User: Fold this.
Amino acid sequence: MGLVQGMADIVKADHLPGRLALILRFPPHLTEGLVLGASVAVEGVCLSVTSIDGDLIGFDATTGTLDTTNLGTLAHNRVNIERSARMGDEIGGHITAGHVSGTAEIIGFEKDADNHMWLKIRVPAPWHRYVFKRGFLAVNGCSLTVADAQNDVFTINLIPETLRQTTFGLYAVGDRVNIEVDHQTMVMVDTIERSVTSVFERLIADRFANPA
Assistant:
C-alpha cells in the first residue's frame, strides 16, 4: 500500500554470482508472524524471505531486480520495509505491488523552516508519461502525492513525519530512488492513447478512401 512500516539495518550485503544476498535487522514488531517465502517490500522492491534468524531476515535480489532497482548501489545502510497487506488492514496510500518500474535520479532537495522537504526527481521515459500533478507515485516504497510536474521533473513534498520514518534523509543529489507508477493510471493513459490513435487512423483511412 506504500505505507512504510519502519526501517531495517543492512547487516550484510554479499554480491554473489547472479544475485545479491541481503541480511537485514528488522524492528522486533515487524518479525511477528514472518515466515519463509513471505513477501516484504524493501525500498519498495518486493522480495521473498529466504532466511529467518531472530530479527535477522535474509533476502535474495537477482540480476533482473538489480538491473531495475537501486538495491545494488545503495550508499547507506538502512532501507524502508513494509510487510504485505492482510485482509482487514486499513487501506491507506494507494495500491502498490512492489514491482518497481525503474529508478529516478534525485536532482534537488529544498527544505523550509518547518522541516518540510521538497524532493525533485527526474523520471526517465517511458515512465514520466504516467506521472501527473496531484497523482500518485511510489518512491522507495512510499506512496506519495506529486506536488508539481514539469516535463520529466517531478516535485514531491515530504512532511517531517515521512522523513523521520523513512530513508529519504540518507539520500543525496545524484542518487537514484526506486519508483513504481500507479497501475490504474498507466492502464488509463495507454487505453486513451490507443483509442485516440485508432480513431485518427480510421479518419485518415476514410479520407483517402473517399477523397473530396
